[in-house]
From TrEMBL:
<keyword id="KW-0378">Hydrolase</keyword>
<dbReference type="InterPro" id="IPR001940">
    <property type="entry name" value="Peptidase_S1C"/>
</dbReference>
<dbReference type="InterPro" id="IPR009003">
    <property type="entry name" value="Peptidase_S1_PA"/>
</dbReference>
<dbReference type="InterPro" id="IPR001478">
    <property type="entry name" value="PDZ"/>
</dbReference>
<dbReference type="InterPro" id="IPR036034">
    <property type="entry name" value="PDZ_sf"/>
</dbReference>
<dbReference type="GO" id="GO:0006508">
    <property type="term" value="P:proteolysis"/>
</dbReference>
<dbReference type="GO" id="GO:0004252">
    <property type="term" value="F:serine-type endopeptidase activity"/>
</dbReference>
<dbReference type="InterPro" id="IPR041489">
    <property type="entry name" value="PDZ_6"/>
</dbReference>
<keyword id="KW-0645">Protease</keyword>
<dbReference type="Pfam" id="PF17820">
    <property type="entry name" value="PDZ_6"/>
</dbReference>
<protein>
    <submittedName>
        <fullName>Protease Do-like 14</fullName>
    </submittedName>
</protein>
<feature type="domain" description="PDZ">
    <location>
        <begin position="317"/>
        <end position="394"/>
    </location>
</feature>
<comment type="similarity">
    <text>Belongs to the peptidase S1C family.</text>
</comment>
<dbReference type="Pfam" id="PF13365">
    <property type="entry name" value="Trypsin_2"/>
</dbReference>
Amino acid sequence: MSYFLSKLSRLNRRSVVGGVGVVAVAFSLHYSDKYTNFRTIVNARLPLPLQDTPWLTLEAPFDLLPRHWPSFEQNGIFALSSYRVGPVASSDIPKETSGVVHEGSKPCSCDCFGKDTIANAAAKVGPAVVNISVPQDFYGITTGKSIGSGTIINKDGTILTCAHVVVDFQGTRSLPKGKIDVTLQDGRTFEGKVVNADLHSDIAVLKIYSETPLPEAKLGSSTRLRPGDWVIAMGCPLSLQNTVTAGIVSCVDRKSSDLGFSGVPREYLQTDCAINVGNSGGPLANMDGEIVGVNIMKVLAADGLGFSVPIDSVCKIIEHFKKSGRVIRPWLGLRMLDLNEMIIAQLKKKDASFPNVNKGILVPMVTPESPGDRAGFRPGDVVIQFNGKPVESMKEVIEMMGDKVGVPMKVVVKRANDKLATLTVIPEESNLDL
């Protein structure tokens, strides 16, 4: 080793860096071979490109445990806001701007995937992505900051993010966690105000005020997505601002029941983009640079299992906010199950009297004293028409109800031995506190 070090002193600066790399690798291999039951961790400092400049040190935050939605821990799923010990001064955040589309990187007129496709999509969305931080107080003492992401969707300063990043819920009432600092990619910092927040969709709308127009992202459509489509996730995972990761859509309609969530049924976009704590509220974008989802959570002990709220659902929530100041969810008190050929065949095998249907919605359970119970629904009914239109999925029923609370609706059901019944049900607003 002394001989090797003496040789290093004669090498130029570039060679010294290479030599130090060899020493580090050799030491790592020797250590790993001797202690095979232990994992070697190598800490490295990287110089900025071989000039007389300070060493660049990357420090990873250690305390990143979410302080919300403890029920997620039971399913191994965490929401993606982070908790960092100690305040982060706005001056510590680098004033970076997102990349721009290079003049030589002209978009392809044909719908093909090129070397600049992801970079161009990120350049369109990037300026509108913001870093959101909220101080965490304990009896007036600031103990850290809750950090998430968001997207400016209007030049007037309207920002889309996740509710758990910025508010605490007491029942259906939302209480701001504290002062909300919103930092743009160009380094400007604003104070944000919560306009609306919804607990069960975990969507919130913030507002910042600027004397000049702000960058905005374009909203796309999530209904056009297919499994295998390329998407990018943007935000500030682990407090690393202006981060872009890419992946594909793994599933376009992952049910909340698949993830172990009870209560209001929801659907998520599942992707394999690398998302971590701090990505919560950040945008999921397609290759056209349009927002198709809001990143919300990931599976804790798995790679490539992230989930986003589809942008089409988000747009409906925003419409509810504008119209009523909250999300109105009609309630029938019926548990429903979409039927397919396999399920129908199994049910017919167990009970020969099961109605002869090719599609429809099975009602396996009716909540006592609910609107459905008062309307005359029975367990085993198959809904074939709702409000005068044929239906075959719960999603269609939810869309037809919209926010129609107190409006009578005609429902045609098929019962055992193919008996038809026409029922009138009056939806009530769901009490999500229960």
